[in-house]
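Supplementary Note 3. Input sequence used for the single-chain structure prediction.
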Amino acid sequence: MKTTIKLLILLIGLFFIHNSSIAQGPPNPPGDPSTGGVGPVGGTAPVGSRLGILLVLSIGFGAKKTYNYLVRNKEDNEELYS
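The predicted structure, written as discrete structure tokens, is reproduced below.
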């Protein structure tokens, strides 16, 4: 009974999320740069900030994995820190 209610709530929630997440249409293509059009040929996608976020998340993930490894193998690693 509990699993049926949980499944029903999940399906209703996914239905409402799906209906509210309708995507936008594609943007207009940039003008021709050779004739003085606006925008570069490759578009104007901001890549730099997302690379920074990816780098920070990767460092955090690596630190967490290292911490878990050191805690799990504490007896073996005590020799290194003594």
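The radius of gyration is 25 Å. The chain has a mean pLDDT of 77.
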